[in-house]
What we know:
By secondary structure, this protein is mainly alpha-helical. Helices cover 42% and strands 8% of the residues. The chain has a two-stranded antiparallel ribbon with strand order 1-2.
Amino acid sequence: xxxxxxxxxxxxxxxxxxxxxxxxxxxxxxxxxxxxxxxxxxxxxxxxxxxxxxxxxxxxxxxxxxxxxxxxxxxxxxxxxxxxxxxxxxxxxxxxxxxxxxxxxxxxxxxxxxxxxxxxxxxxxx
Length: 126
């Protein structure tokens, strides 16, 4: 934990992997920022590292970044790198403009953050 740059890969059991990933998530802003990918030979699952966060359901206060980044990982896995990069760029631009959910020190609701992302992702019809 004191020297994370010393490691490329950490092999451990599931429970210790969960603990390490939770601790490491705070290097980038917390659990609300981190996606997860479980990739097997025939199937893949993409989700926020924090899971469904049921205690936040229906309150419009959840940080959607981990879910958005999970979608970006899915798109990358499917070979649509440009779409994945657009999502990441939209997240960075939204944060740069000060639109942040309460867990990041902001006041934006989940809907407001999502609307800001959507505006950056929607292409005008030609």
